[in-house]
């Protein structure tokens, strides 16, 4: 759960709300090691809206020499780990989709951060807790412009922030509930 979700719950629940974020998938602390930036990706569902947006992202990124391959229908954590090992930039190309939904969460961005992979995404209320750790864009043109700029970035900064979401830290938050 993130801060916007907790704030939303407080509007109708009277009991104490304890905020425990989602742990990222990178328990092993695997780091992105490639120097060249070629591969972009998105991990998520393959509903018609997602497919349409991701086809547009793929087309637009190809115009600037970047590959784009989303991962849909994954079933294991290992599939997710293997996928993040293959991408250099995460792209979330949904600009008005669930923009103000407090129950949405930032887990995809934190997962990518844990590998040292930057994310370009449209603004979402639910991303507020990690606001300074992804590149916010408003439309497809801005997305392409920012992807073009991402030839180098501060992976250490992303990894350091993602460490707050490591399973070892999240487990301690659950232990403290008793």
Name some characteristics of this structure.
178 residues, alpha/beta, Rossmann fold, two-stranded parallel sheet, 38% helix
List the helices and strands and how they pair.
Elements: H1 3-10, E1 39-41, E2 43-44, H2 48-62, E3 67-68, E4 71-72, H3 77-84, E5 89-92, H4 107-115, E6 119-122, E7 135-137, H5 140-149, H6 155-162, H7 167-175
Parallel strand pairs: 1-3, 1-5, 2-4, 5-6, 6-7
Report on this structure.
The chain is α/β, with parallel strands linked by helices. It has one domain (3-171): Rossmann fold. Helices cover 38% and strands 11% of the residues. The protein is built from seven helices and seven strands. It has helices at 3-10, 48-62, 77-84, 107-115, 140-149, 155-162, 167-175; strands spanning 39-41, 43-44, 67-68, 71-72, 89-92, 119-122, 135-137. The strands form two sheets. Strands 3-1-5-6-7 form a five-stranded parallel β-sheet, sandwiched between helices. The mean pLDDT is 88.
């Amino acid at each position: 759960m993130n801060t916007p979700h907790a704030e939303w719950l407080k509007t109708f629940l009277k009991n104490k709300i304890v905020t425990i974020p989602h742990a990222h998938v990178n328990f092993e602390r695997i780091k992105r090691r490639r120097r060249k930036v070629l591969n972009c990706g998105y991990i998520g569902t393959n509903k018609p809206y997602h497919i349409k947006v991701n086809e547009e992202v793929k087309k637009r990124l190809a115009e600037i020499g970047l590959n784009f391959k989303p991962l849909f229908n994954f079933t294991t954590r290992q599939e997710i780990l293997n996928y993040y090992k293959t991408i250099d930039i995460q792209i979330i190309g949904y600009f008005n989709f669930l923009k103000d939904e407090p129950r949405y969460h930032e887990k995809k961005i934190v997962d990518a951060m844990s590998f040292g992979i930057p994310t370009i995404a449209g603004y979402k209320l639910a991303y507020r807790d990690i606001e300074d750790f992804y590149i916010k864009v408003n439309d497809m043109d801005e997305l392409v412009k920012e992807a073009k700029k991402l030839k180098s970035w501060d992976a250490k900064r992303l990894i350091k922030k993602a460490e707050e979401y490591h399973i070892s830290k999240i487990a301690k938050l659950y232990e403290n509930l008793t």
